[in-house]
């Protein structure tokens, strides 16, 4: 079967792609920017990639005519706090236009549980997208899920941040709202199980795990699985805006996502339909099992995708290609080089930078800079990295975005997503003479940008000098 996979570089898209390939399907991945599809070379050779921005008017002859089915996995909740519902409606309308002239038979859409009469803006938008997709010239299967729990999922990472960092919490009253979490592997099982299944055509199904829990109970059960206790008190005075700030500063979520999540957390999200479990013969995992499975993936460094790697987790709005050419004029630079004796070892250290590894020198200063960035509305350091040793173009790396990760050319190029009065790049490259080049480039925005650069030059002297030395010399790396 030939399948169009939209949102292929998103959290769900990256999880279902290897499953579909293993099932023997031919996959066409639709992405906005081909350069940031985070798959290895072997996977890249097995798929076809097309570039489509579903917010723009459809272009002709982009989608192959012989598509049999498609997954609609496009969401815009993290992109905006105001008009994401209009954006989601537009993507659905344009999707219908793109596939109108193909031979497509089925579209599978992952939506949200919408059983409450008073829906949040987020859930109402998901329902609206369903209605638009039902107007397409195909059989639609809608899977309505609640909170998805898995390594790298936004819900799991937020719960993880809260519990691991705050053993004592003063929380908003929405933590008493009921929800029904589902394990990511069950979501993938439902998504693949409905493919080509005529019993699921033109119908909508709730999918959820067996446990109905309040958010407070979810936090307690997470701590129980991890082997510690936490204490939670709720207060009725925390407004939605204050709740959003609370999530934003304590967890790795963006403010836009935090605001939209808080709006949805006031709504009870409980499944009323278990028909699909019976049709497909799937027994969903419990919430505790989902947490345990997530940590097994984390401990084995097998996290396939993370919501933090999506462009909407940071400040990046342009295509990567626009920034790969580092400017030479009108910029300020900190350039250092060192002759190295073991280039392969040095390359591995470069590829492990950030996250748990840190930045090889003055990590406490990097943390202070991350905290300052968070205070000013930036992404801070909490995003970390998805894998400790693998990097792909488009990945988030603390408060940087990976523009280029070419191990064969021994070059790593990062673009800053922190709040800055200008644009910043950080590049590592090992040349043919085994010389390590480290270049920090800053293109200031007006006088304020230049004042910013010169004010931190003394810190650069120590930080960048110590960093290149420790990257080059494993004995001193810390």
Automatic annotation (TrEMBL):
Transmembrane segments: 451-472
Keywords: Membrane, Transmembrane, Transmembrane helix
InterPro entries: DUF2867 (IPR021295), NAD(P)-bd_dom (IPR016040), NAD(P)-bd_dom_sf (IPR036291), NAD(P)-dependent_oxidoreduct (IPR051783)
GO MF terms, alphabetically ordered: aldehyde dehydrogenase (NAD+) activity
Entry GO terms, CC: cytoplasm
The NAD(P)-binding domain, residue ranges: 7-148
A Pfam family of this chain: DUF2867
Domain of life: Bacteria
Family annotation (PANTHER family): NAD(P)-BINDING DOMAIN-CONTAINING PROTEIN-RELATED, PROTEIN YEEZ
Protein name per Swiss-Prot or TrEMBL: Uncharacterized protein YbjT (DUF2867 family)
Phylogenetic classification of the source organism: Bacteria, Pseudomonadati, Bacteroidota, Flavobacteriia, Flavobacteriales
């Amino acid at each position: 079967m030939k399948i169009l996979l939209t949102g292929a570089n998103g959290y769900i898209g990256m999880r279902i792609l290897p499953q579909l390939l293993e099932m023997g399907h031919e996959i066409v991945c639709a992405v906005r920017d081909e350069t940031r599809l985070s798959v290895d070379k072997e996977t890249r050779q097995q798929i076809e990639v097309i570039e489509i921005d579903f917010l723009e008017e459809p272009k002709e002859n982009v989608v192959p005519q012989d598509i049999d089915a498609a997954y609609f996995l496009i969401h815009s909740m993290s992109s905006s706090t105001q008009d994401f519902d209009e954006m989601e409606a537009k993507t659905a309308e344009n999707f219908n236009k793109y596939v109108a002239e193909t031979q497509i038979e089925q579209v599978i859409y992952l939506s949200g549980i919408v059983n409450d009469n008073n829906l949040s803006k987020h859930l109402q938008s998901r329902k609206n997208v369903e209605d638009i997709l039902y107007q397409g010239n195909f059989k639609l299967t809608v899977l309505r899920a609640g909170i998805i729990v898995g390594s790298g999922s936004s819900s799991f990472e937020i719960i993880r941040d809260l519990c691991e960092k705050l053993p004592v919490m003063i929380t908003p009253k929405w933590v008493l709202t009921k929800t029904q979490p589902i394990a990511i592997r069950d979501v993938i099982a439902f998504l693949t199980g409905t493919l080509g299944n005529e019993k699921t055509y033109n119908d909508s199904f709730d999918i959820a795990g067996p446990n109905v829990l309040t958010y407070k109970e979810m936090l307690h059960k997470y701590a129980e699985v991890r082997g510690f206790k936490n204490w939670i008190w709720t207060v009725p005075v925390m407004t939605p805006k204050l709740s959003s700030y609370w999530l934003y500063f304590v967890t790795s979520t963006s403010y836009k996502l935090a605001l939209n999540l808080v709006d949805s957390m006031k709504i009870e999200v409980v499944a009323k339909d278990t028909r699909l479990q019976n049709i497909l013969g799937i027994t969903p995992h419990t919430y505790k099992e989902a947490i345990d499975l997530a940590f097994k993936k984390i401990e084995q460094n097998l996290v396939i995708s993370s919501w933090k790697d999506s462009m909407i987790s940071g400040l990046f709005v342009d295509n990567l290609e626009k920034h790969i050419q580092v400017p030479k004029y009108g910029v300020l630079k900190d350039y250092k080089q060192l002759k190295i004796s073991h280039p392969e070892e040095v390359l591995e250290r470069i590829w492990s930078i950030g996250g748990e590894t840190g930045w090889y020198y003055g990590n406490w200063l990097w943390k202070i800079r991350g905290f300052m960035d968070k205070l000013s509305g930036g992404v801070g350091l909490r995003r970390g990295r998805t894998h400790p040793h693998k990097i792909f173009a488009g990945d988030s790396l603390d408060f940087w975005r990976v523009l280029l990760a070419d191990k064969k050319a021994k070059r790593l190029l990062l673009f800053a997503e922190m709040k800055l009065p200008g644009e910043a790049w950080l590049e590592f490259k090992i040349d043919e003479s085994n010389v390590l080049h480290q270049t920090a480039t800053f293109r200031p925005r007006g006088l304020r940008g230049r004042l910013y650069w010169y004010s931190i030059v003394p810190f650069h002297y120590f930080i960048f000098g110590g960093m290149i030395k420790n990257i080059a010399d494993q004995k001193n790396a810390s």
